[in-house]
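Two proteins, back to back. First:
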Amino acid sequence: MKILLANPRGFCAGVNMAIETVERVLQLRGAPIYVFHEIVHNRHVVEGFKAKGAIFVDSIEQIPPNATVVYSAHGVSPEIRRQATARRLVQVDATCPLVAKVHVEAVRYARQKYTIVLIGHRDHDEVVGTVGEAPDCIHVVENLADVASLHIPDDHNIAYLTQTTLSLDDAEVLVAALKQRFPRIKSPAKEDICYATTNRQLAVKQLAWRCDLVLVVGSANSSNSLRLVEIARNRGVAARLVDDIDAVDHEWLKGVGTLLITAGASAPEELVRGIVAMLCLRYGATVEEERQEAHRENLEFGVPRSMRELDPATQI
């Protein structure tokens, strides 16, 4: 068996920042601290922080007054912030800056009296938070049927935004449909789908055709990981999502000559390395790192400014 390792893969700048933020807050405040929603959508990351004393909640009411809360990388609505303020919580915001950009766009369009169409998965934490910025102005569309059912008066100004972790292919189809229905619809000044999502998808597109199977390391609630599986399958290549080494079914590997392994933006590299080591031991696999120089990632995000409330010496 030959293993191709896709590059880039795994943690992005936003995930690194969010994880570092929780680690710093635990060091400064001590356990327990509270995290609103999963800090990133990966089971191993979440369980690791639980073991260190982080408590993950889905409601601000679950947090005792005066405690510390960290907001996940996916962002939260203004209503959540108001609830936290009312409980006198110390709020640390680990929202990915690229998600925050979409929030800012939503607020700006709402102030300008635009009707906003948000392309995304309506139950995803990121979309819930964005809709909360302007709930009376935003329509969420997930598919072509949603686009067809939109009822927006002709005299309304219209703009669209997208969830940052969407499939580029799917988003392009929906954007084209929106532009056909609403020729005057305004596009974001800069693409909302984040650089890391784009790069990981492009790597799979460029390599999948050479492979018999694609393994995507990531958790089932990770939107960007699921999109990598879809992209491979859309190109006629078998693909599986695996949380870790225990999720690998060896029946999948029968007859596989070349295997592509990648990882979603919230999946730790150690999980990839564990799977690769197992395959090398069991199948005598050889490993080839595929490096896409055009997609090299050097972006880093500093810890959030809200860390200063915990530690005035924090370097932003």
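And the second protein:
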Amino acid sequence: MVQLISQNPDLVSKLANALNESTKDLLKRDTRDIAAEFLTVERAIEQVELFVSEVNKVNKYDFKNKKLLEIGAGVGTFLITARTKYGIDAYGVEPSKDEFSPFNQISRALLEEYNLPKDIVVCGMAEDLPFENESFDLVYSTNVLEHVQDPMKVLSESLRVLKKDGYLQFVIPNYFSFWEGHYGVFWPCLTNKPLAKIYAKLINQNPSYIDTLQLISPIYLKQIIQKLNIDNIEIIGWGKDIFKRRLSTGNYSDWASLRTIRPLVEFIQKTKLANLVANVLNAFEMYTPIVLTLKKK
């Protein structure tokens, strides 16, 4: 039994309706399930713990009282969890117009429920963050970079507002992998939009949703970092070891319809092929998700 961030029983339905409005008929998914995931405390705890564990691989770092910015705050579940359970001084940025407005209404209601200031979620675009240089000790984002207009600008802006000796973590679907979490389908390692739309049509999914996505891969991200010509960052990890550990142990949560591939993972484990499969997929940059964690020097 999962714990929802809110005591309001109507909030899941309200968020599901907002998701229906924002995605229209682009996805054949149960938006009520997705809404419940967005509002789940356990999911937010996992997100915080992943950030903490990756940073602590290289440095014993106390997150308490550190100032954190979440790129794409959504309905605020991560921010509230970071503040109430970890003592992190967490803020978020989220667009507030058009299809995003219902999400902001929900986040404001949640912040009021927890007696938190409403201004900790700022209206803005990730490509043009409304903050001064080096304003935050930590920058975090999950499942957002694939939805922005300009991933390179978002990464550049995120590094601009990050303090020296601060840490950044972006969790992003890898489209050069075997899984696509938005559709909830197996994915043939496609980062080419025309081919991806053909595949979506073949499996009876709406190909128009591809137009809303950036089909990001590790190679693409590495090219972005190279183009930015950044020499003051230290890459801590890309998520390969996380993927190998999850595939080998089966110790991962079934968020984003991952329960669909649970039988396959269990089969790989039973046949004692988990380490081999993980090593092969990692070698060809086909792991998922990408968990880019870095330090600004």
